[in-house]
Amino acid sequence: MKDVRILEIRQSVFADNDRQAEALRAELREKGVFLLNLMSSPGAGKTTTLMRTIEALGEAFRIGVMEADIDSDVDARTIAQSGAKVIQLHTGGMCHLDAAMTRQGLEGLETGDVELAILENVGNLVCPAEFDTGASRNAMILSVPEGDDKPLKYPLMFSVCDVVLINKIDVLPYFDFDLEKCREYIRMRNPDARVIPICAKTGEGIDAWADWLRAEIRSWRGSMQ
Amino acid sequence: MKDVRILEIRQSVFADNDRQAEALRAELREKGVFLLNLMSSPGAGKTTTLMRTIEALGEAFRIGVMEADIDSDVDARTIAQSGAKVIQLHTGGMCHLDAAMTRQGLEGLETGDVELAILENVGNLVCPAEFDTGASRNAMILSVPEGDDKPLKYPLMFSVCDVVLINKIDVLPYFDFDLEKCREYIRMRNPDARVIPICAKTGEGIDAWADWLRAEIRSWRGSMQ
Question: A123 and B168: CB-CB below 8 Å?
Fold first, then answer.
């Protein structure tokens, strides 16, 4: 497999992350870079979903991916196979990315002509939700094997996301996961979140997700004028 | 379902967690309370594994369980059905428990005659690994749907655990999970960790886990004299 670039992220020194995030968001808007922050538990399927997303939208948008992990570069190597621009970010043990760290990642990625930048955040349902990365939209993946009660236990994560992808629906028959109950729990936390069931492995539901993301990018671009 | 006690955990004020943890460990040793710290990603099966553990060891030891969660009391309600002593700890958004927070939990549980106290830590593969809770032993669960590469991505968690339970082995046929490769990755991080494949849902492998835990409690008691 070909080598991927690895960037060691430095811990930020800024106390006011919200201000840093707003500044980064304004800057990205100016540059026309739509930043998607993708979050989930470890192993929920972020990388496989990204591969499908690149497949579905790679012709419509120039895509760049930042793979954040505490260690290893397995995810960036996978994404590199798609042909998309990719960089591996190592957080040095840190459990999340804030706006200043995301900025370092974007500089490392060298966005240039990138139209859709995707940050695969550290696998963690707690800490990443607390830090605005400066993203245009927040997305999360909840996978069927994790259970339908997760919106009850990790409320903030579900509150901050614009869209919740429910992944691994191919294994619904083997788990006690009630999709309707889960939708209801998500609604309790966040009535505005779009919920899209998918199976990144087989491609089921990826069209609906790609349609949602395409529409969001268009509406974001429209609101710039 | 019957009501469970809920304790709101206060953030600790101690800078030196390691010293707090050593002090708590010494105190628990004096009292004869073996404290097991159980960690995993969200939805890996901590609560179901605990139900099986209480089933297997509830006659040999008086068990008390602390269920730590950011919100909700669904896990404590489940454990309460087993008849074991239980308390729900709410971390108020915090992503882990440190030794001082664990001490608050133990005081809330009122250990009294408890011989085996189990802390179900917040579902998170990153932060809980960084804080010694004062536990006698650390255990973690990795579930098959999360993938066999997790020891590469979350090295610290695998390094600090005495035992790794690989849960949900009933769904191995539906996932690309290589058990031998996973054992090898765990060995890279932690050559001393015991690895036990289980299925908490069906009970498979629970005997081996209960045997391990029983032996650890006995050896801990032996080393007291």
Answer: no
Q: Which fold has domain A6-10+18-212?
A: Rossmann fold (3.40.50)
Rounded to whole angstroms, the Cα distance separating A63 from A86 reads 9
B6-222: which CATH architecture? 3-Layer(aba) Sandwich (3.40)
- Residues in chain A with CB shorter than 8 Å from the CB of B145 are 43, 143-146, 168, 171
A6 in contact with B at a CB cutoff of 8 Å? no
The residue ranges of every structural domain in chain A are: 6-10+18-212
Q: Which residues pair with A119 in a beta bridge?
A: A37, A66
**How many other C-beta atoms can be found within 10 angstroms of the C-beta atom of residue B171?**
18
For the stretch A146-203, pLDDT in tens is 999 999 999 999 999 999 999 999 999 999 999 999 999 999 999 999 999 999 999 9
Question: A6: Cβ–Cβ under 8 A, 6 or more apart, which residues?
Answer: A73, A76, A87, A88, A89, A90
DSSP codes, B58-83: TTTS-EEEEEEESS--HHHHHHHTTT
Laid out side by side, the sheet with B85-90 consists of: B6-8, B85-90, B63-69, B116-120, B34-40, B137-143, B163-167, B194-197
The C-alpha atoms of residue B179 and residue B186 are separated, in whole angstroms, by 11
Residue B168 tokens read as 């949900």
